[in-house]
Write a structure and sequence with these properties.
The relative contact order is 0.18. This protein is α+β, with helices and mostly antiparallel strands. The strands form five sheets. Strands 1, 2, 10, 11, 12, 13, 22 and 23 form an eight-stranded mixed sheet that branches. Strands 5, 6, 15, 16, 17, 18, 19 and 20 form an eight-stranded mixed sheet that branches. The chain has 13 helices and 24 strands. It folds into two domains: 186 residues, 3-Layer(bba) Sandwich (FAD/NAD(P)-binding domain), CATH 3.50.50; 196 residues, D-Amino Acid Oxidase, subunit A, domain 2 (D-Amino Acid Oxidase, Chain A, domain 2), CATH 3.30.9. The protein binds flavin-adenine dinucleotide. The site of flavin-adenine dinucleotide has 38 residues, from helix 1, strand 2, strand 3, strand 11 and helix 9.
Length: 432
């Protein structure tokens, strides 16, 4: 006799990874239970920059229009700063690779508050037939049948009552400290340098369509982005030791690092904090596995890298797309679960492996004295090379694109050259 389940798919966590997986599976006809311990809108520590490759995925789910109507800012490029050098790049076509969404010559990423981004996805899930949203429900652990196969979740409802929900398949999208992964003993302790982020939001920054990254000597960095409602979000990422400096307040630490970032300091000269600076971390988490019988992880639940290249939401949304495709194939009997999960893992490795590698390499390199300046100075001399780096970190140029002659012809030739930002007319830009 076939067992009966409460849901076809039960998803822990309704951030971008969970909400996108739910929407995709419900649209394919499956009964989905989507749980989150928080109610929306909720805050989430983030640089709030969505890389250009996220834009078509938002459009595909019908979410883009609502975000733009809510004031999401189009981000056309980035200003990169090292202690003694700077470079500008744009999200433009590189050889055969186009940023997914275009406005005139430029592709764009988006800057939007997470309260807005995540709430709109959850509201879309609430409207979508086939999805039962359970907000304010806490997941405790994955339940397993006698064979060890994951068969559901142990949860508490908003009144604190413990319940067991069952499903043909469970998705863990419950973020970097995943309870589901923890309950399966899949989490690994990160033994490297622990990093923390300070998050600040400002009003009163001169309007810009460019994000701003500033690496400091020693590897601390600022990542800042214009977002909706005239807000400019600036994150500062530091080593744990920087936070351990006695009674030093977050404001003082932020101000001290800002003294070493003159271009950003100039931008923020007349700005006011919208809310107190907050801190989060440690940032790095790791898992040993990302799938097993009856369950798969997606988004930050799979492990979280330092947000230097601003790709976490791309990994969450693209991961949701890859996973939903395979879970659908398994549930509809097109593939065995084993083969579907193997394909999911392979696709993740193929698409994300080189990107994780690149992000880690940049992280490591930039901590070494002088390396950031050498890299940024070279990018400053070769704007098209800087565009290529933005294409890579903007997720629309795959790392394998570095082997393409078309890419290098586009970078080294002049035919495709775009007007480069005029540094002299930018009051926030300090020339070295
Ligand atoms: C400081 C910082 C800056 C960043 N900047 C950027 C950036 O600019 N661009 C970018 O693309 N990425 C950035 N990231 C990364 C990005 O925020 C994440 O990669 C992204 O949020 C991952 O989405 P997710 O859905 O996997 O997880 P989350 O967004 O964390 O969602 C997980 C959800 O699970 C829920 N949950 C957790 N535990 C439970 C439980 N036990 N029961 C029920 N629900 C639970 C949580 O409430 C949450 O809603 C940044 C991250 C940090 C920390």
């Amino acid at each position: 006799m076939r067992a009966t389940f409460d849901y076809d798919v039960l998803i822990a966590g309704a951030g971008p990874a969970g909400a996108h997986t739910a929407l995709r599976l419900a649209r394919a006809g499956w009964r989905v239970g989507l749980l989150d311990m928080r109610r929306f809108p909720r805050k989430k520590a983030c640089g709030e920059f969505l890389s250009p490759a996220c834009v078509p995925m938002l459009e595909d789910l019908g979410l883009l229009e609502g975000l733009l109507a809510s004031g999401a800012r189009r981000v056309s490029g980035m200003q990169l700063y090292a202690p003694r050098s700077c470079a500008h790049g744009h999200f433009v076509t590189i050889g055969p690779y186009r940023p997914g969404a275009h406005e005139g010559q430029h592709g764009f990423g988006l800057g939007i508050r997470r309260e807005v981004l995540d709430e709109q996805a959850v509201r879309a899930a609430e409207r979508q037939s086939g999805i039962t949203c359970m907000l304010g429900w806490r997941v405790h652990y994955a339940t397993q049948d006698e064979s060890g196969r994951v068969s559901g979740l142990s949860v508490s409802n908003p009144d604190g009552k413990r319940l067991q929900l069952t499903a043909r398949f469970v998705v863990a999208a419950d973020g970097p400290r995943s309870r589901v992964a923890g309950s399966l003993a899949w989490t690994n302790k990160w033994r490297g340098q622990e990093r923390f982020a300070l998050i600040a939001r400002f009003h009163g920054v001169e309007s810009t369509t460019e994000a701003h990254v500033q690496v400091l000597d020693g590897g601390d960095y600022f990542a800042a982005c214009p977002i909706d409602s005239g807000i400019f979000t600036a994150n500062l990422v530091v080593d744990r030791e920087a936070l351990a400096g006695g009674n030093r307040s977050l404001d003082a630490l932020f101000a001290e690092r800002l003294d070493r970032a003159p271009a950003l300091q100039a931008k923020l000269a007349y700005a006011e904090l919208v809310e107190p600076i907050s801190a989060c971390g440690p940032l790095r988490t790791m898992t040993r596995r990302t799938s097993g019988p009856g369950v798969a992880l997606v988004g930050d639940a799979c492990g979280f890298v330092d947000p230097f290249t601003g790709e976490g939401m791309f990994f969450a949304m693209r991961g949701a797309q890859l996973l939903a495709e395979e879970v659908h194939a398994f549930l509809s009997g097109k593939r065995s679960e084993r083969s579907a999960l193997r394909r999911y893992e392979q696709a993740r490795r193929r698409e994300f492996g080189p990107r994780y590698g690149l992000a880690k390499l940049l992280q490591r390199g930039l901590r070494r004295r002088g390396v950031a300046d050498r890299v940024v100075r070279t990018l400053g001399r070769w704007p098209r090379l800087c565009d290529l780096v933005l294409g890579l970190t903007g997720d629309y140029v795959p790392p394998s694109g570095l082997l393409s002659p078309l890419v290098w012809r586009s970078v080294l030739g002049t035919a495709n050259r775009v007007p480069v930002h005029d540094a002299a007319s930018d009051p926030g830009l300090v020339r070295y």
